[in-house]
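Hi Y.,

Following your request, here is the sequence exactly as I used it, all 273 residues.
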Amino acid sequence: MEPLAFDFKRDVVDLSFEKPVLIDFWAPWCGPCKVLGPVLEKLEQEDQGKWALVKINTEVEQQIASYFQIQSIPHCKLVYEGKIVDEFTGAQSGDTIRKWLEANFQRLDLPEMVEAQVDDFDELIAGHSSLPDKNLVEKLKLFLKGNSDHEKAIHLLVQHEVFFDSPVALSRIPSSPDALEKPDLIKDLEAVAEWMAVSEGNSPSSRLLNSAKNEILKTHMAQAIENIIEAVHQEPGFQNELPRRTGIALFHFLGNQHPMTQEYRKLFDMAIY
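Below is the corresponding structure, written out as tokens. Let me know if you'd prefer a different format.
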């Protein structure tokens, strides 16, 4: 199969919403480019997926070079979330570029996860016990780039991602529940998405669910569950029984063996029956 032709939107802009992209504008006749190129490639390899290097030959991609007004090469631009955040011209040492990259990554406040792509699923999720976990979301996104059919990874990703970006999480799931090993997953995701959209209102449940939302986003699981249980007690019918549906979704996500499930599931069940 022939490799895909270079597509600036796909290979730079779209990718930059997943991780920083460093564009290296170069040309075959450029001596300093031949010095800088291997340095950049070595740094990218060392960082194991934290950022991506995209090399653009100015002799081949003249329109792109003209658009960016590239007058001297080598020239590098760092792109993140579709925007140029920094750039430099000329060959630099590896240490200088490393410091430049780290300063930019710190300023961009990148999720800690994007530091490495792990190919082993069990190794990747080891040590991630909190819910939701934004760092785990980013790790799973990278993992799935090379393991797109890994159902456990997809299920775990959406269970965490729904707290931060509900529409994207829901869009990852096939339209037919029959395509899933866990047919309740869509119902649980929809309940959490509805919960995340709750704003504080005048009703007891809206206040309690909004407080629970704030607590869980700070990974204060116990306080979140206690607020949900209290919402079930005070106003069980709120928004088509959202407190009950939210609690069920959380316990499904946590699993039967999680300490929070073992501590609170019986209290929750007593509240809903």
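The CA atoms of residues 237 and 243 lie 8 Å apart.

Thanks again,
Q.
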